[in-house]
Amino acid sequence: MPLVAHTALPTFQRLHEEGEEILSPDRASHQSIRELHIGLLNIMPDAALEATERQFFRLVGACNQIAQFHVHPFTIAGLERSPQALAHIQQYYESFEQIRQDGLDALIISGANVTHDHLQEEDFWRPLTEVFEWATQNVTSVLCSCLATHAFIQHSYGVERTRLPAKRWGVFSHKVVDRQHPLVAEINTRFDVPHSRFNEVFQRDMETHGLKVLVASESAGVHLAVSPDGFRVVFFQGHPEYDDISLLKEYKREVLRYYNGERDDYPPYPEHYFDNEVQQLLAEYTEHVKEAKLGNCPLQAMPEQQIIEHLDITWRDSAKAVFNNWLGKVYQITNEDRRLPFMDGINPDNPLDL
Q1: What is the rounded CA–CA span in Å between residue 319 and residue 241?
Q2: How far apart, in whole angstroms, are the C-alpha atoms of residue 187 and residue 176?
Q3: 281, 307 Cβ separation under 8 angstroms
Q4: What is the Cα–Cα distance from 349 to 83, expressed in whole angstroms?
Q5: Span 28-38, mean pLDDT?
Q6: In angstroms, rounded to a whole number, what is the distance separating the alpha carbons of residues 308 and 246?
Q7: pLDDT of 21 strictly over 80
Q8: How many distinct helices (H) and strands (E) make up the chain?
Q9: What is the DSSP string of 197-218?
Q10: What spatial distance separates the first Cα and last Cα of the chain, rounded to whole Å?
Q11: Tens digits of residue pLDDT in 152-208
Q12: pLDDT tens digit string along 46-85?
């Protein structure tokens, strides 16, 4: 399903340079193929704003070539933004008002950083729940990532996430627990997924409220679940969209926070992510950081290029498979008018006829 560069968003050019197939609007207009319009509600902080675009655009663009994808990024109020990020958003993003007027076939909602103990205290809570309420009535299927999953479950089912004793951080093995569901059809029964979160909604709480758990880990909890109807809302607690360097970038930010006195303890390694050689490199770098902090000395750069050579990405194929299954089902049941969620004859309470 090739992406259509229907705007000048720089992400299209960046993906083209990486080898992704990107269609110009003129070329797309000469193909007899159906369009699908996918929203991306990007509520990630400034440092990850454009990276999040690329990550989700890649997963959408990697799906089977049965449709042309128009991806519509937008955001909401209540998020602190730098002037540079605001300029990017104003130039390339659509407003929620425009999204609501034009309609969507499917919607992806990214994770976000939070500053309060309870999500309902966040400035973006009200605007986010307005998107939830509109999408559940007007969009064929909504895919929530990490924080968006926690927020949607709290808003819709009254279940607040639980603070974990320590950050769930690393790459963890998961197993498909419901092999019959179409979202996990023809996918490996065991695969890795990155996680990066301080909080969790537990499997028992999901199942108590009728959510169907599809993929879970003994050590990292639920990764993939769906709403009681089987498809209208798809929940990720992990980050299948992550690049191979995403956790490295997070680790580097935590090291800088330690050096700058923003955290007291030196950050641990993300689990199951750095091999022995990288850990040896980082052990030496740790000593340098601690000495530099103690002596109030300049900090040398982390040896990122040496580290990147050792990083493996063990979750991309499974992530593509789930997205392919998801958008394939959207294609099969969505109305040709993107302002309407379903074609005639589809039961909203059981859209996949499970």
Answers
A1: 7
A2: 9
A3: yes
A4: 43
A5: 79
A6: 11
A7: no
A8: 12, 11
A9: EEEE--HHHHHHTT-EEEEEET
A10: 26
A11: 999 999 999 999 999 999 999 999 999 999 999 889 999 999 999 999 999 999 999
A12: 999 999 999 999 999 988 767 889 999 999 999 999 999 9
Contacts of 80 (CB under 8 A, 6+ apart): none
Single out the residue of 151, 146, 148, 329 nearest to residue 222, CA to CA. Answer: 146
* Distance, CA of 128 to CA of 109 (rounded, Å): 10
Whole-number Cα distances in Å, 272 to 246, 252, 268, 276, 299: 14, 17, 12, 10, 27
User: For residue 24, what pLDDT is reported?
Assistant: 86
Q: Helices marked H in the chain — which ranges? A: 10-17, 25-29, 49-61, 83-92, 96-102, 125-138, 147-157, 203-208, 246-259, 276-294, 304-308, 316-333
- Strands 68-74 and 212-217 come out as unpaired
Q: Is the pLDDT of residue 1 over 60?
A: no
Give residues with Cβ within 8 angstroms of 317, minimum separation 6.
Answer: 188, 191
What's the token pair of residue 267?
A: 């950050």
Q: What angle do CA 121, 126, 132 make, to 5 degrees?
A: 125
* Cα–Cα distance measured from residue 332 to residue 85, given in angstroms and rounded to the nearest whole number: 36
Instruction: List alpha helices for 260-352, DSSP H.
Output: 276-294, 304-308, 316-333
Q: Pairing mode, if any, of strands 233-236 and 68-74?
A: unpaired
Yes or no: say if 139 and 106 are a contact pair by the CB < 8 Å rule.
Answer: yes
Q: What is the mean pLDDT of residues 135-149?
A: 97
Q: What is the DSSP letter of 344?
A: T
Name the residue among 70, 106, 143 with its Cα closest to residue 322.
Answer: 143
Write out the DSSP string of 144-166: EETHHHHHHHHHHH----EEEEE
DSSP SS3 for 3? strand
> Which positions are catalytic?
146, 239, 241
What is the Cα–Cα distance from 225 to 354, expressed in whole angstroms?
Answer: 15
